[in-house]
Write a structure and sequence with these properties.
17 strands; 14 helices; 40% helix; 6-stranded mixed beta sheet; Rossmann fold; single chain; alpha/beta
Length: 406
């Protein structure tokens, strides 16, 4: 990814924790947005484009006159993929920088590291990443797809194409553990059998023994919920063993950070996924967005699922501030809870008042020549998994992450 000189200088200053305040503006003339992301370290392939997307949204809003006549001032911190720094910078944004909103977090662990601080300080928080579902907290809004939006669509599609015997691979932390349960649920509901579930720490990169186990189990379909650069080795080793020609695969994570562009076409072709966004969406909104991105950063190759989710999260928050006529937390929450919608690169994004999650379009896709080929689009899918356990209209003081029981 490249960016022009003006954007490079802007990004460099902010990544060090500096404030992006227009020279002509004073603090009283601004709305303060805080960002905390892994823009370096092992998760920077996710965090850097998320940061770029946030800045693009802010620049567009400021160029159009800001929010209620005030410019957005960004203060951003790089956690260097260190969970301890999420806690530190979360406190700094809320207690020292006194921002009006925080957009940030990538892994579920990073979300849970800063969410208590956001709630304690009454600082509105947006988590704009696909995740395992179940968070119920009136102070947070979540823009990423949940299992009922994504996995429930992907599994029957993949099973109809491949067969009923399913082998599950997942990252060994709460996202992978909980998502694996959702996969098993939807496999069973569609008349299938989960023959095995294997979990892997995030630093595991040798999958030779795993591939041998899969060969022995002889499943019809692999479903992989693997995360990060080390786990990308599985897909390479799977293809090197010739198994990608023998057993079809689906994934709930591959491609959200453009991993399919790191893999060769030979390694990635045919893998099935379901997300809210693809660069290949041929819509006026997405084409306009990619053009803006290319003008800012040189090309649109770096755009991915959670970068767009972050962009849409900033636009959703901004629309609520406009509707509220204020940055007051309670007034902005009320505006969001009105069923507010925005039109983003991935389609319509609507806030579900009951859960503070997003109602989203989901696209079933297949990797083809390092691209996500859209096969089917499912419009405005509800986060019914979290709706089953979370009702903030009835229980506004709820504050927990439910693990939905099957």
């Amino acid at each position: 990814m490249t960016m022009n000189r003006r954007h490079f200088l802007t990004a460099t200053a902010a990544l060090a924790g500096a404030s992006l305040l227009p020279l002509s503006a004073s603090a009283a003339d601004t709305v303060k947005l805080g960002s905390v992301l892994d823009t370096s370290g092992i998760f920077d392939a996710y965090g850097k484009p998320m940061d770029m997307a946030m800045r693009l949204a802010v620049e567009e809003i400021n160029a159009a006159g800001g929010l209620n006549g005030k410019m957005i001032d960004v203060t951003a911190y790089d956690t260097q993929s260190d969970m301890a720094l999420y806690t530190q910078y979360g406190r700094q944004l809320t207690q020292q920088d006194e921002v009006d909103v925080v957009h940030g977090g990538i892994l579920s662990a990073s979300r849970e590291a800063i969410r208590p601080t956001m709630r304690k300080t009454n600082t509105l928080y947006f988590y704009n990443v696909l995740y395992e579902g179940g968070v119920c907290d009136r102070n947070i809004f979540i823009n990423g797809v949940t299992p009922a939006q994504q996995v429930e669509a992907l599994i029957p599609f993949a099973m109809n194409k491949a067969g009923k015997k399913v082998y599950v691979l997942a990252a060994d932390y709460n996202y992978g553990q909980i998502t694996a349960k959702w996969i098993q649920k939807y496999v069973a509901e569609n008349g299938g059998e989960t023959v095995a579930v294997d979990f892997f720490p995030l630093d595991v990169s040798d999958f030779g023994s795993t591939i041998a186990k899969i060969q022995a189990a002889d499943p019809d379909l692999i479903v992989a919920s693997l995360v990060g650069g080390a786990h990308l080795s599985f897909f390479r080793q799977w293809a090197a063993a010739g198994m990608n020609k023998k057993i079809p695969m689906a994934s709930t994570t591959l491609g959200v950070g453009n991993e399919h562009k790191v893999l060769t076409a030979e390694e990635g072709d045919g893998i099935m996924v379901a997300y809210n966004y693809s660069q290949e969406l041929d819509t006026p909104a997405n084409n306009a967005f990619k053009k803006k991105w290319a003008e800012a950063y040189g090309d649109a190759n770096g755009v991915h699922e959670i970068a767009v989710s972050n962009y849409q999260g900033v636009l959703t928050w901004a629309e609520a501030v406009k509707k509220a006529g204020s940055t007051d937390r309670d007034m902005v929450i009320e505006a969001l809870e009105s069923g507010l919608s925005i039109e983003g690169p991935a389609g319509t994004v609507t806030v579900d008042p009951k859960t503070h999650h997003a109602v989203l379009d989901v696209h079933i896709m297949e990797f083809d020549g390092q691209k996500m080929k859209v096969l089917e689009t499912l419009k405005q899918r509800q986060p019914i998994d979290t709706q089953a356990v979370c009702d903030l209209e009835a229980n506004p003081n709820d504050n927990q992450q439910y693990e939905i029981k099957f």
